[in-house]
């Protein structure tokens, strides 16, 4: 399974992304789990862990951008922000491609460690005080 969702700290939802996408159904399962959170009509925050992600075909960047575009058509956005733990240059490159195709529905922080995501989640004002050395990239929603 490509994505394992952890709801134990809701409204902070952990998503562990594994080595690779097995099939289109595997990717669809990831998107469907995301949509299930919207169906609950409750605000949430994502913490994606990509530290064990291997090769991901570029076609999934296009599918993700299309999915984000569809989410933007919804009346209300329940996702408030996302943290993506990334230590691989290829993952960061794929994220850049995805967000250049379609800006995110909520602010996204590409960060180095899980500990930083926990600290940043404590208080949104803390995010504004972080230096650029604390995270790789920030993608505002547009």
Mean pLDDT: 85
Look at the helices and sheets and give the structural class: alpha/beta
CATH class descriptor: Alpha Beta
Share in helix: 40-55%
Quaternary status of these chains? single chain
Instruction: List segments where confidence is low: pLDDT < 50 over at least 5 consecutive residues.
Output: none
Query: What fold name goes in the CATH topology slot?
Result: Transcription Regulator spoIIAA
E-strand count: 6
Major sheet: order of its strands? 1-2-3-4-5-6
Number of helices: 5
Radius of gyration: 14 Å
CATH H level: which superfamily?
Answer: STAS domain
**Through-space gap between termini:** 31 Å
Q: Please report which band the strand proportion falls in: under 5%, 5-15%, 15-25%, 25-35%, 35-45% or over 45%.
A: 15-25%
CATH architecture: 2-Layer Sandwich
- The sequence of SSEs as H and E is EEHEHEHEHHE
Count of separate structural domains: 1
